[in-house]
Write a structure and sequence with these properties.
The chain has 127 residues and is an all-alpha fold. The chain is built from eight helices and no strands. It is 67% helix and 0% strand. Helix 2 crosses helix 4 and helix 7 packs antiparallel against helix 8.
Length: 127
């Protein structure tokens, strides 16, 4: 069975996806305040690219370099509420729409990021 990583053409696809996503993040004050280095998102771009490549069947470089993803634990130090989740999803879904080669791939990616984003919310709803 061919992985999504192979179907979309490998690393170049995920680099384009993450670059497009971070173009949105770089202009979003709601999200930028969550990044320890908001003026240099290079490391964050690399980590997300490696994570997505691995998740979708590519090389295990992310785990080799950083260990198990433990997404919820890694994001726990950051206050992520519904607003942050929604902003993240807006930029990621726009990036997916711009780089996705087919409706099937778009659907798979969108479903995954929607579920993942919901799992990272760690703040109660605002009153």
């Amino acid at each position: 069975m061919t992985s999504l990583y192979e179907t979309v053409g490998g690393e170049a696809f995920f680099e384009r996806l993450v670059d497009r996503f971070y173009e949105g993040v770089a202009a979003d004050d709601v999200l930028l305040r969550l990044y320890p280095e908001p003026n240099d998102l290079t490391s964050a771009r690399k980590r997300l690219t490696l994570f997505l490549m691995q998740y979708w069947g590519g090389p295990t470089t992310y785990s080799d370099e950083r260990g198990h993803p433990r997404l919820r634990q890694r994001h726990f130090p950051f206050a992520i509420g519904e607003r942050e989740k929604d902003h993240w999803l807006i930029h990621m879904c726009q990036a997916i729409d711009e780089v996705s080669p087919s409706d099937e791939i778009r659907s798979q990616l969108t479903e995954y990021v929607t579920n993942a984003a919901a799992q990272l919310v760690n703040q109660p709803p605002s009153a």
